[in-house]
Recover the amino acids of this structure.
C-alpha cells in the first residue's frame, strides 16, 4: 500500500499527518530503546540519573 505524504499534499486530512508523526516517533523510540539495550550488553550505563540522590540545596 502506497503511503500518502501529508506534508507534500495539501488535500490530505490532518489525521494522516498525525499518523505519520506518530509512526516516526515510534520508530525513534524503538531505535532509542535498541541503543540502550545494546549499550547494556556491553556494560555501558547511559542513564545519567542518580536514583539515590536526595534533593540538593544550593
Amino acid at each position: 500500500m502506497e503511503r500518502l505524504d501529508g506534508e507534500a499534499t495539501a488535500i490530505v486530512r490532518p489525521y494522516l499527518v498525525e499518523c505519520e508523526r506518530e509512526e516516526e516517533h515510534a520508530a525513534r523510540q524503538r531505535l532509542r530503546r535498541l541503543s540502550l539495550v545494546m549499550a547494556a550488553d556491553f556494560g555501558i550505563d547511559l542513564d545519567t540519573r542518580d536514583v539515590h540522590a536526595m534533593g540538593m540545596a544550593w
User: Anything to note?
Assistant: The chain has a mean pLDDT of 78.
